[in-house]
Structure formats: C-alpha cells, structure tokens
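Please check these two lines:
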Amino acid sequence: MDKNQKLQLKVLMKTRINQLNALLKVSSTDAEQLQAYVSEAEALKSNLLWLETGKAGLCFKCGCDIKFSLLVAYPERRSCEKCDDYGEVSLSTGSK
C-alpha cells in the first residue's frame, strides 16, 4: 500500500468515525444498533493504528495484499477476499 492510499484510508476512516460519533450523540435507535455503531467505530480506530504499522494492507491470516478497493469499501476489514473474515486482531500479537 502506498503513502497516498494510506492517506486516503485515514481520511475515510476518520470521517466515518466522526459520522458514527454524531449518530451516537443524537440517535434514538435501539441499544443493538447503538452497539453496532460503537463496534464499528472501535474497529476503525484500531485500523487507523494498523495503517501506521508495516503490516498495513496485508491480510492478518495469510499475509497477502488486501485490494485497496476492498479496504475503501470496508475500511474496518483486516483480511483478503480469500480469507474473507472481518475479524479484529491485536496489533501487538497478531491474534484474534
């Protein structure tokens, strides 16, 4: 992943986090939907840190490149199409 792509993803993730925070402040939805907003925001914040590592853009399961278009569509994603898992991993251990 090149520097420009990382910057694009950072902007996308920060924008989505801000949108989620705004929804949490004014939302009258049920508790389940609110928890989904919180979970998505947490995944995005984690992936912002991931972008700063040497493993940014690499699948946490098999290590291959994740398509940039896939990361733009699903910025909380950490796996390639082959592995097809949205699971979060620890930045320090690399495990679920």
Q: What stands out?
A: The chain is about 50% helix and 0% strand. The CA atoms of residues 6 and 51 lie 7 Å apart.
